[in-house]
Each structure stands twice: as C-alpha cells, then as structure tokens.
Automatic annotation (TrEMBL):
This is L-aspartate dehydrogenase. The keyword Repeat does not apply. It is an enzyme of class 1 (oxidoreductase). Its EC number is 1.4.1.21. PANTHER family: ASPARTATE DEHYDROGENASE DOMAIN-CONTAINING PROTEIN, L-ASPARTATE DEHYDROGENASE-RELATED. Specifically catalyzes the NAD or NADP-dependent dehydrogenation of L-aspartate to iminoaspartate. Residues 9-92 form the Aspartate/homoserine dehydrogenase NAD-binding domain. Belongs to the L-aspartate dehydrogenase family. InterPro entries: Asp/hSer_DH_NAD-bd, Asp_DH, Asp_DH_prok, L-Asp_DH, NAD(P)-bd_dom_sf.
Length: 243
C-alpha cells in the first residue's frame, strides 16, 4: 500500500482486518518486487508517473484513473511497454457496466455512436479544473443543468476525478475522440447516475446506473471500489463470468 499522503495509509491499515505495517511501502515501484498486480486508485498523476515503470518490471497494473490515457502519448507508451514486458494494463469496469457489450459491439466496426451521460449532485463535481476555469458556481445550481458536453478526450482532463469511466467506455468502444460525454449537475440527485446510449450494426443499447456515492468521497461511486475487488477476484477465479 502506498499513498503520497501517509495518513491515508494509516487510515487504511486501521480499517482493514488482517493487514499490518508490512503492507506499507514508501516507494510504489517497490510493490513490483512482491506483487503480481498493482491496483492504482490514486489519480491521473499516479498513472502518468508510475504506469510505464511498473509495467516495465513485468507487473500487471489495474488502473482506475484511466482518464490519464486521454494523453495519446501516454496511452501509446503504456501499450508499447506492456507488449515489450508481457505485463498487462487492465481497466476494470469500475463505476460502470455494459463495457463488455460495447466491446463486443465494436468488433468488426459494429458501433456507430456512443453517448455517455453522467448526472451527479453538484458537490460531486467540486474541484474539477473545468468547474474552476469556467467559474461554475455549483452552490447556485437550483435545477438539473448541463455543465459540460464534449468528447471523452476533452472530458478526462477537465474532470479528472469524475469521468474516468468515460475513458474506460471509449477504450472499449469508439475511442476517446468519438465518444460523446455529457455531464449534468443536479441538486435533486443524491446518487451518481451514469447512462450509456449506443447504437450500430449489432443493435441499440442503453444502460443506466444509479449508484450511491462512496460515504467518504462524493466524487466516487461506492460500486467502483466493490467492482475493483471483483476484478481482482476474477484473476484467480476458476469460473469467469463476463468478458
Ligand atoms: N474508473 C472508474 O470507474 C473510477 C475511477 N475513479 C478514480 O479512482 C481514483 C481514486 O478515487 P478515490 O479513492 O475516490 O480518490 P481519493 O481522492 O479519495 O483518493 C486518492 C488518494 O490517492 C492519493 N494520491 C493521489 N495522487 C497520487 C500520486 N501521484 N501518488 C501517490 N498517491 C496519490 C491521494 O493522496 C489520496 O489519498 C480517482 O482518480 C478517481 O477519479 C473513481 C471511481 C470510478
Ligand atoms: O465513481 C464514479 O461515479 C465515476 C468516477 O468517479 C470516475 O469515473 O472517475
């Protein structure tokens, strides 16, 4: 376990049964010495800094802050390094589902349009660079409002802690430039709402998720943490469900 803020490791050790100080690392790259897989749940900067060096060691990386791959050079370096070392860069479904169906529909170009809509309580968007740069007064929003529309590549750096799911979806489907993202703030909403609308030669699909924010962090859906655990279990499961 590594966090640039050691207090967060203290909190995690306190709240996790059976995990002791030996789980604490001062250097995330040292995790490669003892781990088959490293889970990144930190932020874009962690992916930018550690993904390539970790993959170079042959260690798999399961990354939540996958919006970092909006940087095409980083995306390319990650794939190139993984091919060379034999390690895998894995993107869990995280706060999303339906990614498997989108991946299937994308085979042989059977996908024409993917739109990703996210609706969050205004507090869930606080601190996003886009909100600050455009002086969006989240506290003054009185009814559901579209605050952003653009591609997944544009959305990722504008909302680095909110819209990693859109990049996961785009990697499964049409790519970062052709996946449309719409972000709404809704003061009447208490859940994080994610909706995928896709159509193409394989048919039309719509998926909607109303998931509870994590009690400790309104930006993140609780299901993202649970789904990451499920992704880890999948690696050693004798019977694997889903793609
Ligand atoms: N792909 C998906 O479906 C989802 C992705 N996420 C992403 O997962 C990440 C983690 O989410 P939360 O746990 O809610 O965030 P958080 O903000 O509660 O915790 C992040 C932790 O990482 C640490 N950190 C940040 N940058 C670091 C770095 N460069 N090196 C070392 N430590 C660093 C911080 O000190 C903090 O303790 C975020 O990037 C979030 O946007 C969250 C939910 C869903
Ligand atoms: O947890 C969510 O609802 C989505 C999220 O934060 C992200 O994709 O970064």
């Amino acid at each position: 376990m590594y966090d640039r803020n050691p207090d967060r490791v203290d909190d995690a050790l306190r709240s996790t049964d059976g995990v002791d100080e030996t789980a604490r690392y001062d250097d995330p790259l040292a995790l490669a010495d003892t781990c088959d897989v490293v889970v990144e749940c930190a932020g874009h900067s962690a992916v930018e800094r550690y993904a390539v060096p970790l993959l170079e060691t042959g260690t798999d990386l399961l990354a939540l802050s996958v919006g970092a791959l909006a940087d095409a050079d980083l995306h390319e370096a990650i794939v190139r390094t993984a091919v060379a070392s034999g390690a895998r860069f894995e993107v869990p479904s995280g706060a999303l589902a339906g990614v498997d169906a989108i991946k299937g529909a994308a085979v042989h170009g059977q996908l024409d349009e993917v739109v990703f809509v996210t609706i969050k309580p205004p507090a869930g968007l606080a601190g996003a660079p886009y909100i600050e740069e455009h002086d969006v007064d989240l506290a003054a929003i009185e009814e559901k409002r579209l605050v952003f529309e653009g591609s997944a590549r544009e959305a990722a750096p504008a909302f680095p802690a909110n819209i990693n799911v859109a990049m996961a979806l785009s990697l499964a489907g049409l790519g970062a430039d052709d996946t449309v993202v719409k972000i709404f703030a809704d003061p009447d909403e208490t859940d994080n709402v994610h909706r995928i609308e896709a159509r193409g030669g394989a048919g039309s699909m719509a998926f909607a998720f109303h998931t509870h924010p994590h009690p400790a962090n309104p930006r993140t859906s609780y299901i993202a943490a649970l789904s990451t655990i499920a992704s880890l279990r999948r690696r050693t499961a004798p019977l694997v469900v889903g793609t």
